[in-house]
Amino acid sequence: MNRFAQKLSEQSISLRRARPEILQVNVGKLCNLICVHCHVNAGPKRKEIMTRETVDRIIDWLANTEIPTVDLTGGAPEMIPDFRYFIERVKGLQPSRHVIDRCNLTILLQDRYRDLAEFLAGKEVEIIASMPCYSADNVNAQRGDGVFEGSIAALQSLNSLGYGTNPALPLHLVYNPVGPFLPPPQDQFEADYKRELQKHFGIVFNRLYTLTNLPIGRFAAYLHHSNRLDEYMQLLIEAFNPATIDGLMCRNTISVGWRGEVYDCDFNQQLGMQWNNGQPIFLWDVNPDSLEDREIMTGNHCFGCTAGAGSSCGGAIV
Predict the structure, then answer these.
(1) Which of 105, 224, 270, 310 has the fewest CB atoms within 10 Å of its CB?
(2) Does 313 fall in a domain?
(3) What's the domain count of the chain?
(4) CB of 147 within 8 A of CB of 140?
């Protein structure tokens, strides 16, 4: 039963798409890390990688829209062979579009990616970096031994290029809870992050985004294994906040999979909730003018985005 749809109906809420502002592209599930909270189930052995043909078809479609922002995610998006090609093509559009790279930081330290930070800075790519905590123990427990130390080194390298201080090079961090609970107040926690990272490592950044872990993928498996899945779902349901609805990312973001298929959000993508009209719909089959006011596909996992202060790709909603 879709309890989320039932909740919307009880409150006379219609969840429909607004004008698209962000094209979020999941370019693959290959990643150098295996994180406990990962809803994508990404890792070093995954084979799903976007081809250049698909990249070109996405860019050609984007060129005929006014969507201003392209948000690249994964896995570690940097690991696909055509990552730089993708960015160069987006930046070559007229007008050029803003690009976001959702980076796990440690990838920037691997030998074949050592010059990637300079490339990103040269293209003025915004970086949203996963940093689950300012505590080494918490980060390494969630993401693997040594990840905290690598993340700190990568952040220091980005700072040296102007990220976090140059207005053209925004650097934001992402916090995910390490267990089955809601994130703390975003503004308050951001102040803690900035104080601790500056004090101990000389690191500066722009904003902290607090994201609620959704009960899907690897995090759902963790909850099930610890017999806390039902408890966590009940927490999300009881914390439902109708004030978050207008700011949900599914309203202004189009989610595209590594093969070019279309979804309402990255979470729906991982659950296989693909748009269809008798058959699967790919981005290049979509009329950009037909997107506004489309009904959004929902499920019980949507309670994760509407709990408490809400959760979106840009952090808390209210």
Answers:
(1) 224
(2) no
(3) 1
(4) yes
Element (H, E) at 89: helix 83-91
In terms of residue numbers, what domain contains 187? 3-306
Strands (E), 68-162: 69-73, 98-103, 126-130
In a domain, 153, yes or no: yes
Indicate the pTM of the whole model: 0.95
In a domain, residue 312? The reply is no
Helix (H) or strand (E) run with residue 207 in it = strand 207-210
Whether the Cβ atoms of residue 183 and residue 173 lie closer than 8 Å to each other: no
- 145-182 residue pLDDT tens: 677 888 999 999 999 999 999 999 999 999 988 789 99
- Rg from Cα positions in the chain: 19
Six-digit token string for 268: 């729906």
Give me the phi and psi of 109, to 5 degrees please.
Answer: -95, -10
Structure tokens belonging to residue 257: 């999979």
CATH of the domain at 207: 3.20.20.70
Q: What is the pLDDT of residues 71-130, one digit of tens each?
A: 999 999 999 999 999 999 999 999 999 999 999 999 999 999 999 999 999 999 999 998
Q: Any idea which residue has 């790519």 for tokens?
A: 125
